[in-house]
Amino acid sequence: MAEKEIAAKKKTPKSPKEIKDYSGPVRPVCRLEDLGKDTLVKLANEYARAYQQMDGHWYDAVAKRYGEQIAREIDFEVWMRNIPSTARRTLEALGHKENDMAGILKVSQFHPAAGGCPFLYDYEVELKSPKVGIVKVTRCHPMRHYRDKGNMDFVRVMCRKWDPQMFGQSAKAIMPDVTWRPLVLPPYDAPYERQEPGIDCMWEFTIED
Amino acid sequence: MGKLKDYSGPFNPELKMTDFSSEALARLLLAAGKMYLGADGMWTTVIRRRFGDDVALECSREVWDTNWKQEVRRPTEAMNIKGNDIASMFKFFQVDPGFAVLFEMKFEVSDDGKHGKATVVKCRTLEYCERHNDTWLMNLACHELDGKLIPETARLFNPKMQCKATKLPPRKSPDEIPCVWEFWLK
Fold this sequence. Notes:
The complex is a heterodimer of chains A (209) and B (186).
Chain A: H1 2-10, H2 37-66, H3 68-94, H4 101-110, E1 121-129, E2 132-140, H5 141-148, H6 152-166, H7 169-174, E3 178-184, E4 201-207
Antiparallel strand pairs in A: 1-2, 2-4, 3-4
Chain B: H1 22-51, H2 53-78, H3 86-95, E1 104-109, E2 115-122, H4 124-131, H5 135-157, E3 161-167, E4 179-185
Antiparallel strand pairs in B: 1-2, 2-4, 3-4
Helix pairs in contact in B: 1-2, 2-5, 4-5
């Protein structure tokens, strides 16, 4: 779909040459593809940030009216509904055709609520085998933010209540029979006491035979 | 920098955004723009269902009151767009994840730069509303939000900039233009 749309937009004559940024004159027709890659990358980061922030603004608006508990419930529902379609959309935009473990890892590298949002997260992934993949979040800004503010209650909600269900939803949207489990998970107490230097959380994905 | 056309090839644990070609990045950005407005839509849907239309309208207004300035500032900075004239604002519209990146738009600026016209030729949000016969959502998106935020955006670029919608939904047929916005500098 995304490819078709880009192709359709290309029917309009393309601007003469790629531009580094958009400090120059306005172009009546200016497509994303006309922009230099550095600028596109900056824009991609900002779009991902905007995507996450939209969620935050809604959370705040609901929490103000109905309290944190209701806002958390709704936030969870929104993400559970939102992740599958956005994961598939990311995979499609990346052009990866197979529904496999490599696709799962690629999506986690570029989904705007995951590795595709460098403002909030740094991700490292490892394809251990066609059936097993590892995702390491080496920097999770939201977790660190609430941890540093001493709000361990919310760290527990995000990391222990939400993430074990949510973290694998994008993988499940690609391969319904995938399973996932946390290997490292804040706040690093029972039953997940394991800690790894430089890793905020780590997950293992497995495709069952 | 690489020129990866897409990510159909082997998995690369070290892959960076800059390894992709401009076309591949453009596809990712289009997807991210859809997700951005999609997240807003999802919250609106859930709040309407749980608390009704009035609460959803109130929350949505509050969300966008907070959000729109960031939506303007960040892409503008990322693209090094400077200036406070109509052309500068149109440059922002062209890279806005919630506007011309998602909707097909046409821009015209007069030779003296004092008048401008932005036409939304194809609008996904309006098409969604029409498909679902959801006049409430159309009113929210086109009148309650855009009807206020687009003039506000003009004033943010330049307090002397004026704006008027000369065409707004609803429309009688899908062949009609969704909306037209005129801008002028006093």
